[in-house]
Amino acid sequence: MNQDGQMAARVAQALGMSEAVLGKWVRAARAQAVRPVGSEALEQENKQLRAQLARAEMERDILKKALTIFSQPTGR
Q1: Are residues 25 and 42 in the same domain?
Q2: 23 shares a domain with 11
Q3: pLDDT at residue 34, as a whole number
Q4: pLDDT, tens digit (0-9, with 9 covering 90-100), for 54-73
Q5: How far is CA 34 from CA 25, 30, 31, in A?
Q6: With helix as H, strand as E and coil as C, how does 34-68 read?
Q7: 46 and 76 co-located in one domain
């Protein structure tokens, strides 16, 4: 039985396909379904991403300062 209570055969008939094809589609959709990730794993990933972002921002700021210093005309 499916969500609305119809049997797979009735659904397949309504869609104009064989029950075997419908079954293959259902199995393929289930195989591709996104599995929920635990909140602990998400928190760990967020922590890592925040650390990477902080480092990238720090490196950017250092490069901006270096560019300013090296862009100044020399006293030649």
Answers
A1: no
A2: yes
A3: 76
A4: 999 999 999 999 999 999 98
A5: 16, 9, 9
A6: CCCCCHHHHHHHHHHHHHHHHHHHHHHHHHHHHHH
A7: yes
